[in-house]
Amino acid sequence: MNSLTDQQLAARVAQDIPDGSYVNLGIGKPTHVSSHLPEGREVIYQSENGILGVGPTPAPGEEDVELIDASKRLITTAPGGSFFEQSDSFAMMRGGHIDIAVLGGYQVAQNGDLANWATLDEKFPPAVGGAMDLVVGVPTIFVMMRHTNKDGSPKLVNKCTYPLTGLGVVTRVYTDLVVLDITPDGFALVELLAGNSLEDVQSLTEARIHT
Amino acid sequence: MIDKRVKDLNEAVSQIGDGAAVMIGGFGSSGIPYGLIDALVEQGARELTIISNNAGAGETGIARLLKEGQVAKVVCSYPRSPGSVWFERRYEQGEIELEVVPQGTLAERIRAAGAGLGGFLTKTSYGTLLAEGKETRLIDGVGYVLEKPLPADFSLLRAEAGDRWGNLRYHGTARNFNPVMAMAGKVTIAEVRHLSGEPLDPESVVTPGIFVQNVVEYGVRP
């Protein structure tokens, strides 16, 4: 079956970020989205550690150790950017001022529930960061993730088995195989990666994909 | 005459006793008061509750306090970071207690403590494991969780510049939790890269000196 690489997946998500948006990119795979924004769009990226206007990676020799994003990567400041403290940063999220958040996920359920902060493994410490604040405050939540776990088990499920991050919060899911919207009926097909059959993708998905 | 300057890091942390709740500013490696933490390791206070966004990485900062066995409890949003080996070791062996708090709720609980509020209602965590055992309320049909203030005995901060009145200014994303923690510590101690007897420009002050009890110069950047 054909599947997208992480960079191709990031590029696919970037196509759906409108000009003029304020966007929060979660740690991990979502951080790649900003490098694939189509020409001609101006988007301001917020990072929850306290910056609006996350710019590209600094050139060698121009790094500032006190200028990082939420993934702890060294960054630069984009034109029009600003710095602020944590309670302001989360007021931007919870107060509905950010337009889109792109998050990773362990599981997404057909009703839009998201699980992405804790597993059932007691030896593996939970880590929530800003995910729970983002999902309750940001109106559009994109989740990007592999379609299945490494062992082939589904991540798009009828009901999440991992602890929830938020209830009914996901807008759209991007996987390496498919783009799906959350609708009142459940997962609705937006796009199937060329060369794959819906039957094959459905066989890797616990919940039903509606067309 | 007000003069909040202390002569060195050791004097700055000398009041911190066993069992103290200590807030530590910073996010990742940015805005962490490494000098004050190193002094706290030398000073040796134990059974500490550490309130910070992360739980340290590598062998420095909060990771050093964990390595030396000085920490009984960590309150944070994101303990598991690349290189957080000392946290993971202590956690796996059941040697520390962990309270995970969503990052925005962590900031706001700290702010509530500093601002004299009895708590606040937030949609964050409603219906999840992190809301279990907490009071909830429906407002206009939306579920909210009651979150209580989170104070500390001491707040340890890092700033770019400070003056003898305790006013602080930050650099880049090193601001993060430092201003809000300044309000919430009974005793707030700031290490600053440049400390001056002359006043900072009032227009540039981010943390007003009223929130800060001690400032100490520590010019080393991480």
UniProtKB/TrEMBL annotation, chain A:
SMART domains: CoA_trans
Sequence intervals crossing the membrane: none
EC number assigned by the record: 2.8.3.6
SUPFAM superfamilies in alphabetical order: NagB/RpiA/CoA transferase-like (SSF100950)
Molecular function, one GO term: 3-oxoadipate CoA-transferase activity
Keyword Transferase belongs to the record: yes
Entry keyword set: Transferase
Class of enzymatic activity (EC top level): transferase
Gene3D superfamilies for this protein: Glutaconate Coenzyme A-transferase
Record-linked InterPro entries: 3-oxoacid_CoA-transf_B, CoA_trans_fam_I, NagB/RpiA_transferase-like
Family (UniProt): Belongs to the 3-oxoacid CoA-transferase subunit B family.
Protein name, entry field: 3-oxoadipate CoA-transferase subunit B
Gene source species: Granulosicoccus antarcticus IMCC3135
Gene responsible for this protein: pcaJ
Automatic annotation (TrEMBL), chain B:
Gene Ontology molecular-function annotations: 3-oxoadipate CoA-transferase activity
EC number: 2.8.3.6
Domain of life (superkingdom): Bacteria
Keywords: Transferase
Regions crossing the membrane: none
InterPro entries linked to this entry: 3-oxoacid_CoA-transf_A (IPR012792), CoA_trans_fam_I (IPR004165), CoA_transf_BS (IPR004163), NagB/RpiA_transferase-like (IPR037171)
Enzyme class: transferase
Family: Belongs to the 3-oxoacid CoA-transferase subunit A family.
PANTHER family according to UniProt: ACETATE COA-TRANSFERASE SUBUNIT ALPHA, KETOACID-COENZYME A TRANSFERASE
Protein name: 3-oxoadipate CoA-transferase subunit A
Gene: pcaI
